[in-house]
Amino acid sequence: MHLSLRHALVVVVGLVAAGGADRPHPGRESGSLQQRIYGSFVEGDWTRAANLIERYLARTPNDAVMLYNGACAYARLGRRDKAATYLMRAVDAGLRDLDEIATEPDLEGIRDHPTFVALLQRVQWKASRDATAALAKWRAVYGEEHYRYEKDEERHLAYATALDPVSHSQMRGMLQRQADHLHRTLLGAWPSPYVLIAVPTPNDARRLFEADEIGGIYEHSKRRLIARDIGGSLRHEFFHALHYAHMEQLKQKHPLWVQEGLASLYEDYIFTDDEQVVFLPNERHNIVKSLAAVGRLTPWRDLLALSEERFMHRASQLYPQSRSIFEFLAERGRLQSWYRALIEHFDVDPTGATAFETCFGMPLADVERSWRRWLTIRPKIDTRIDDGDAALGIKSRPNASNDGVVIARILPRSAAAGSQLRAGDTIVSVDGTPTRSLAELQMLIAAKRIGDTVRVRARRDGEYFTVVVRLRPRLPMRW
Fold first, then answer.
1. CA-to-CA distance for 306 and 318, rounded, in angstroms?
2. What is the mean pLDDT of the chain?
3. Half-sphere exposure of 226 (CA within 13 A, CB side)
């Protein structure tokens, strides 16, 4: 069953309920007619659906959603030419869910119709043209010397990255894998139009970002994602880009705790051999543990009801708590079912509370108590390298690279001092795990012990090399 009709029905019924007795009679009649059309689709009575749609369009001839549903009904009836005509009229009237056309089962009967084929070509050409324009705009400002420009036509992504070929390929592979996973599990929509993914040079990033601590931003009005590096911030903002596309398709705007909690969840994860995702605790987990220890966790009922302004006012606490809730859902195997329940019950409860109760079969307070017990038994993770801990023994140059950690200097008597690493080298991985940011490098080394050997891959003057380093204790800093 296609979604357009159901979502249109939700909007109309919501308006009728909001308008109450003062709403004009035609609005109530329209809502009733849409419900009858919806019922016809559910029952598979395509003749009745088509007749009712004609009645609706006699009053509102340029309703893009209803024209689309007319195309579906006539395609089911085998009236191919009429179905194709209605589909073209729907697009001309402003139908935006264009990706749905290619996969809509109700349109299977006209997939080889010349009008359908031409329409898909038109949609693909427009999307490609929009992506080309976005790339041209970036190229006009930032040039070609340091950037490579590409398009992913399947996923509707355009790339402008100041990365070398190895890092660019790894970055594209990472995002493609994340996108395909999300398409299979949570978000069944590709961005439309294309999203531009830009990874600028460090110098350009300093001009683009207001503060050094900002790792990335997604601007939905511009369909543009900019990330300082290709680590967790990029994965966070990339989720936003795909999530916004899905919310537009659903005609829903999920609360900020959902948007930021899910985006934060996708900052750190690994794929298993069977393409399942395992989410990893990061520094946000330690923040939630600290909040729990001093009794400063926000009760779920309050968190779910927060406005965007109040949520952002306490972002440093609520981003981590929201991520932790979704990490709990994922570990319990309920993430997909919760998200489906949120969508299903969104018109009556957009906060997500009903989705929790539906998903777990218990009151929200009981689900929250289960999460708090889960949080209590999970230990903090080690993200710090203190004096006496295993360390490489380097000082890094902040924000000097967009795909690794640049060594500013080698500390004396350190592990790095006895290796082939030099100041100016860029560390890109440790033991095969990418270190795209300082936070990723610190977490990897913090998990090691003194005497452990690690394989450090680095880049110097564009050439990659690997050295084996035996970790030594971090020595106290001398001032």
1. 10
2. 88
3. 16
Q: In the numeric block, which tokens belong to residue 336? A: 């997909």
pLDDT digits (tens, 9 = 90+) for 64-96: 889 999 999 999 999 999 999 999 898 888 776
Please state the rounded mean pLDDT for residues 210-225. Answer: 89
Decide: 258 and 352 in contact? Cβ < 8 Å. yes
CA angle 247, 318, 398 (to 5 degrees): 95
Q: What percent of the chain has pLDDT over 70?
A: 90
pLDDT in tens, 218-258: 998 888 999 999 999 999 999 999 999 999 888 899 999 99
Please count the residues of the chain.
Answer: 479
Closest CA to 193 of 53, 97, 269: 97
Task: Give the domain ranges of the chain.
Answer: 4-112, 130-251, 254-381, 390-473
Q: Between the CA atoms of 254, 260, 263 and 267, what dihedral angle is there, to the nearest 10 degrees?
A: -170
Name the helix (H) or strand (E) containing 460.
strand 453-460
Burial 204-222 (b: 16+ CB within 10 A, else e): bbeeebeeeeebbbbebee
pLDDT for residue 372: 98
Cα distances from 108 to residues 52, 93, 95, 104, in angstroms, run 22, 22, 19, 7
Asked if pLDDT for residue 28 goes beyond 50, the answer is no
Token digits of residue 207? 């001009």
DSSP assignment letter at 188: -
Q: What pTM value is reported for the model?
A: 0.76
pLDDT higher for 406 or 212? 406
DSSP 315: H
Q: Check: CB of residue 194 under 8 Å from CB of residue 151.
A: yes
> In whole angstroms, how far apart are CA 5 and each of 163, 275, 321, 325, 433?
44, 33, 36, 32, 46
The domain 390-473 belongs to what CATH superfamily? PDZ domain (2.30.42.10)
Pick the CATH number of 130-251 from 3.30.70.1280, 3.30.420.100, 3.40.30.160, 1.20.1540.10: 3.40.30.160
In degrees to the nearest 10, what's the CA dihedral of 351, 353, 355, 357? Answer: -170
Report domain 4-112's class.
mainly alpha
